[in-house]
Amino acid sequence: DAMVIQNPRYQVTQFGKPVTLSCSQTLNHNVMYWYQQKSSQAPKLLFHYYDKDFNNEADTPDNFQSRRPNTSFCFLDIRSPGLGDAAMYLCATSSGQTGGNEQFFGPGTRLTVL
Amino acid sequence: SQQGEEDPQALSIQEGENATMNCSYKTSINNLQWYRQNSGRGLVHLILIRSNEREKHSGRLRVTLDTSKKSSSLLITASRAADTASYFCATPRSGNTGKLIFGQGTTLQVKP
């Protein structure tokens, strides 16, 4: 089945130690999104790629970076995780950039920062 | 700024009862979407209703949209314990960006 996969499902890192979360998709969608979701809150968009075009949200800290080496894969790099970065990180895809397309989500990666 | 606001924040019902969740938004939209999120999991798309539609059904789900009031409701009929989850409405951001703005969500608990 076509799907969005995130690895790992749970990630524990130490304060200040760089960490990379990965997302892959078999849907062949050209748009990929990264969201941060804290407990009992709505998902917050960090950035997205339309093909290779990177679009950063204005309030996304510089600590968060992303790479998309090809259509299928997208990575979220947190250069120096702080305690406040502990959250669920959700990857999603959609088939186009026009407004209104359904987004397909992966299961998420739960990040713990010690 | 946050586009969608939902109420109630939390809802607890017995199995078999109906559950209604409401969403309000601020600006003009061309569609509104509802998503479900089981605890510790990703979001799953439930239904999309376009601005020229007033009501849409999908199985036990019924969604209404009132563009004059900038509001939508999600009704789950004959609820089941498996419906226990958080439900989010989402609206496209202005501009042709494909981005969605999610409401704060309604946490639904269905007791067996």
What does this structure look like?
The complex is a heterodimer of chains A (114) and B (112). With 114 residues, chain A is mainly beta. Chain A has no helices and 11 strands. In chain A, strands 2, 4, 5, 6, 9, 10 and 11 form a 7-stranded mixed beta sheet that branches. Chain A has a 4-stranded antiparallel beta sheet with strand order 1-3-8-7, with no helix packed on it. The radius of gyration of chain A is 13 Å and the shape is globular. Chain B has 112 residues and is mainly beta. In chain B, 0% of the residues lie in helices and 55% in strands. Chain B has strands at residues 5-7, 10-14, 19-24, 31-37, 43-50, 55-58, 61-66, 71-76, 85-92, 100-102, 106-111. In chain B, strands 2, 4, 5, 9, 10 and 11 form a 6-stranded mixed beta sheet that branches. In chain B, strands 1-3-8-7-6 form a 5-stranded antiparallel beta sheet, with no helix packed on it. In chain B, strand 6 and strand 7 form a beta hairpin. The radius of gyration of chain B is 13 Å and the shape is globular. The interface between A and B is medium-sized, with 30 and 27 residues.
